[in-house]
Structures are given as structure tokens and as C-alpha cells.
Amino acid sequence: xxxxxxxxxxxxxxxxxxxxxxxxxxxxxxxxxxxxxxxxxxxxxxxxxxxxxxxxxxxxxxxxxxxxxxxxxxxxxxxxxxxxxxxxxxxxxxxxxxxxxxxxxxxxxxxxxxxxxxxxx
Length: 121
Known about the structure:
15 strands, 7% helix
């Protein structure tokens, strides 16, 4: 579980490639390519460019995500958000102007991404 008031920030001028795993809340304003996982909440800012499969407790997205999203709780897509990938979440909120291309599954979230893949077979 994420610690209160503990947030990791990937700043606008930072680029990460590979698997990024955090226990704390995470704010992304830069570029991430690969896999992005956090046990806490995720914020993807308007300057962010994420090309990764993403998993988080809750997420608020204002930037670009090219990859699948597995969100345990609430996913909020704000104005300017651009999602290319499949979404699995409990609750989805979509702001005016947000763009999504992919499938959406809502309700009880599978324990892992492997369950999502096995359900599709």
C-alpha cells in the first residue's frame, strides 16, 4: 500500500525505458517506454508520453498513453487524454475531448494482467 504523501515524480525532461515499478503514488510528466506499475495512484500529465502497459490502483490521465491499462479502481481520462490500448477498470470517467481507441472492460478487475489475457482466449 502506498504511504501517505509519498509520490515519485518522473519530470517532463526525464525519459525512462524498461520496467518501472513503484510502491508510492506516481506522477508522470516525461516519457516512459516499456512497463509502468504502481501500487499507488498514477497521474499522467498533459506533457507525458507513455508507451507502456500500465497498472495502478487509480489513475488520472491528461497526456498520451499507448498501451494497455489495468486499473484496480477509478480511471479518469481528462480533456486532452489520448489512449491507444485496452482498458480494464472498476470505474471510468471520461472528460470532454478525451480520445480512446481500444476495448473497455469495467466491473471487477482481474487480479493480474494474465487473467485478462486468459479471458480473451
